[in-house]
Design brief:
This protein is α/β, with parallel strands linked by helices. It is built from twelve helices and eight strands.
């Protein structure tokens, strides 16, 4: 599905906003531009939390959906170094009735500990464990309905979570294979300078990240790890950032009997001029894949 098709869907969804009942929107698109009715007894909330990982407490934001009872939940994983947090998506999903846990990782944006790709994967696993813990459940998380959504390096972490058999579904947005991306950047002087600047927002030196990528070429092999996701549902969204082939390779590996849905948008890595189309794509897929009463 192309972005222009999504524009048509979005227009239809926004027209539904004039309707009498928010819950009647079966596409979810109304949540892009319309607030859900306030639930005074169980209001939507933004909660600061810290989740434990390797003995450290890592900061995160939990967007709690309005309404009583347990809600389906998104684990939102940001990229490298985390300039784009996709918190606009978090708010849209919250309005649509999803909880969203948006985490940081060790050693970046003030979080304690040492940054590394391996720690990103460990922290993502730890965040899933927190969502399923009594504390997460107390915040209205349904541990049986968790979808992981990752952008860029967050897409790498999302693929690495394919070994968690309890995850319900996966969304990859401009997913980056951090092993190959790091090695390719290191081999190109201009790309290495940009990559080094990104690394400066973490506490990991570029040389350490290159060494880590070299060490894990085999066990973090992209298609093999993506294959662990099957047969669960997968949405892959790509852009004109040079990573489209990485996304489609993950889709092919994770597909099979249940093919992944792939959407390409003519935009940049952060979807700067396609933020509404991006939200529409995610909402449409979630409603089609995980229908609710």
């Amino acid at each position: 599905m192309r972005a222009n098709s999504l524009s048509t869907l979005l227009a239809a969804g926004l027209m539904l906003a004039a309707g009498p009942a928010f819950a009647q929107d079966s596409t979810g698109l109304r949540a892009i531009g319309t607030d859900a009715p306030r639930d005074a007894a169980h209001p939507a909330q933004l909660v600061q939390i810290r989740y434990p990982s390797a003995g450290l407490m890592i900061p995160a934001r939990l967007f709690v959906a309005a309404g009583a009872g347990a809600h389906p939940t998104i684990l939102l994983l940001h990229g490298f170094p985390g300039t784009e947090l996709n918190l606009d998506l978090a708010r849209v999903l919250q309005r649509d009735g999803w909880n969203v846990l948006a985490i940081h990782y060790r050693g970046v944006w003030g979080a304690p500990g040492q940054f590394s790709y391996g720690h990103v994967v460990e922290d993502a696993h730890a965040a899933l464990a927190w969502l399923r813990s009594p504390e997460g459940v107390a915040h209205g998380v349904d541990p049986q309905r968790i979808v992981v959504l990752g952008h860029s390096m967050g897409g790498f972490a999302t693929v690495m979570l394919g070994d968690d058999r309890q995850v319900s579904g996966y969304v990859l947005i401009s997913a980056a294979d951090m092993v190959q991306a790091t090695l390719a950047a290191n081999a190109n002087p201009a790309a290495r300078a940009e990559f080094s600047d990104d690394a400066s927002y973490t506490n990991a030196p570029l040389a350490a990240l290159v060494a880590e990528a070299q060490t894990h070429v085999s066990d973090w092999q992209w298609s093999a790890r993506a294959a662990q996701i099957a047969p669960r549902p997968v949405l892959v969204i790509t852009s004109d950032d040079g990573l489209a082939a990485t996304g489609t390779a993950a889709a092919a590996a994770a597909g099979g009997a249940r093919p992944a849905q792939v959407i390409h948008m003519t935009t940049d890595h952060s979807f700067n001029d396609h933020r509404t189309a991006l939200a529409a794509a995610v909402l449409t897929w979630l409603h089609a894949t995980f229908p609710r009463p």
